[in-house]
Amino acid sequence: MAGGWRLLYFSAPTRGEQVRLLFHAASTPFEDVRLDFPKGITPFKHSVLGQGSPLMFDQLPAVTSPDGTHVAQVAACMQFVGRSVGFAPESPAQDARAMALTLYSEEIRDSVFYKLLIPAVICGLLRKKFLGIFCFLSPLVNLYFRTSKVRASLNRRVRLLEANLDHNFRTVGSEGFFCGAKMSYADVALFDSVRESLDLPGFDPDKELAEFPLVRAFLQRMEAVPELSAYLSKRGPVVEAIMAGF
C-alpha cells in the first residue's frame, strides 16, 4: 500500500467495524481490506511475511497509515486514526479519558455484544438453513447462553455511560459527547458497541434507554451524522450481515 490509509479486518462487522466507522465519520478515504474468517488473515501473518507483517501480534484489526506505520489492537487503532484525522481530544488528560472510554467500550462488546451475538446467529441459522423447522430450539439456545443475565449487565454499563455524559456536560459545558466539545474516536467506539448490542434480537432500545436520556440522545446524534447514516443504511443489521456469509 502506498499513499493512503489501509484497514485489515474480517468482512463481518464485529470488533474492527468501529475503525471503519471512524474513517467514514471523518470522511477519510481508506482501503477497506475485508478478509474471510478465519483463514483470510494467514497471508499477512509473520509465518508468511516475517518482519514485513503488518500484524504486531498476528491479530486483526490492523491499520496502516499513509507513511507506512502499522498499528494493531483495536483501541490503539482508534486512537492512532483519531489523532491523525482530527477526531481526538487535544489535551493529554482528555485523550486519556477517551482511551479509557474506548477500552470500556470493548468491555461492553465482550460482556454483552459477543455473548448475545452467538445465540442470535445460531437462532438465525436455524431459521435460514432448516426452513424454521428447529425454531423451537431458540429458547433453549438463549437459556444456554444466559442471555437474560447478559441483558441485565448492559443496563448497569449504560447507567455508567449516562453518568459520564453528564460529567462531560458539567465539566466542559458541551452536551452530547463523552470527551470535550466535539466528537472523538471514543464516541465512535461507544456508539458502535452500544448501538450494535441494542440492535441484537431480544432488545427493545426504547425500553432499555428509557432511564438514560443522555445516552439515547447521544445515539440519535451519532446516527444522524450523514457519513455514518449512509454507511450503516447500506450495510444493514449486524446479524444479517454476518449470516449473509453462510
Automatic annotation (TrEMBL):
<protein>
    <recommendedName>
        <fullName>Glutathione transferase</fullName>
    </recommendedName>
</protein>
<dbReference type="InterPro" id="IPR036282">
    <property type="entry name" value="Glutathione-S-Trfase_C_sf"/>
</dbReference>
<dbReference type="GO" id="GO:0006749">
    <property type="term" value="P:glutathione metabolic process"/>
</dbReference>
<dbReference type="InterPro" id="IPR036249">
    <property type="entry name" value="Thioredoxin-like_sf"/>
</dbReference>
<dbReference type="InterPro" id="IPR004046">
    <property type="entry name" value="GST_C"/>
</dbReference>
<dbReference type="Pfam" id="PF14497">
    <property type="entry name" value="GST_C_3"/>
</dbReference>
<dbReference type="InterPro" id="IPR010987">
    <property type="entry name" value="Glutathione-S-Trfase_C-like"/>
</dbReference>
<dbReference type="GO" id="GO:0004364">
    <property type="term" value="F:glutathione transferase activity"/>
</dbReference>
<dbReference type="InterPro" id="IPR050213">
    <property type="entry name" value="GST_superfamily"/>
</dbReference>
<feature type="domain" description="GST C-terminal">
    <location>
        <begin position="91"/>
        <end position="246"/>
    </location>
</feature>
<feature type="domain" description="GST N-terminal">
    <location>
        <begin position="3"/>
        <end position="89"/>
    </location>
</feature>
<dbReference type="InterPro" id="IPR004045">
    <property type="entry name" value="Glutathione_S-Trfase_N"/>
</dbReference>
